[in-house]
Amino acid sequence: MLNVMIWMSLVMSDTAAQLLLKKGTMENGFINWEPNFFILAGYSLYILSFLLWMQILKTTPLYIALCGASIIFVTIAFGSYYFLGEPLTAKSLAGTVLVAAGVYIVGYSKKSANSTK
Q1: pLDDT reported for residue 58
Q2: 24 and 42 Cβ atoms separated by less than 8 Å
Q3: Residue 67 in contact with residue 103, Cβ under 8 Å?
Q4: Which of 67, 72, 60 is nearest to 106 (CA)?
Q5: Where along the chain do its domains lie?
Q6: Which residues touch 14 (CB under 8 Å, ≥6 apart)?
Q7: What would the pLDDT profile of 44-92 be if each residue is shown by its tens digit?
Q8: Which one of 54, 72, 82, 83 is most buried, by most CB atoms within 10 A?
Q9: What does the DSSP 8-state code read for residue 117?
Q10: What CA–CA distance (Å, rounded) separates 71 from 83?
């Protein structure tokens, strides 16, 4: 259960970090070197994501961790659509579905391998 919470925290923090950085650069980036709340918050969440990622790497085989982390591409696609108003085209939606299917297949094959042991 703890591992699931760590994974969910990683996905949420990394997705939020990406969205905040995008929002911050859309507003003004580092023009005039003024502090930008969105950019500072985004980088703060990146630090949290890094710490969560280190914990995941301790407990999960690397090929599964990398595949599982690719679900972040899915959450960013939908997050940028809902929160930033970016388009979600048929091609990007199809790619997102393929990534999600790949994550499911690897996760399912891990469950199957564990149940035969």
Answers
A1: 94
A2: yes
A3: yes
A4: 67
A5: 2-115
A6: 45, 46, 49, 69, 72
A7: 999 999 999 999 999 988 888 888 888 898 899 999 999 999 999 999 8
A8: 72
A9: -
A10: 18
Phi-psi map region of 34: left, alpha, beta (phi>0 left; psi -120 to 50 alpha):
beta
- Report the alpha-carbon distance of residue 101 to residue 114 in Å, rounded: 20
Alpha-helix residue ranges (DSSP H) falling in the chain:
2-27, 37-59, 62-69, 71-84, 90-115
Q: Tokens standing for 35? A: 């502090």
Which residue is associated with the tokens 């703890």? Answer: 2
Please tell me the number of Cα atoms within 13 Å of 60 on its side-chain side: 23
User: What residue type is assigned to position 74 of the chain?
Assistant: V
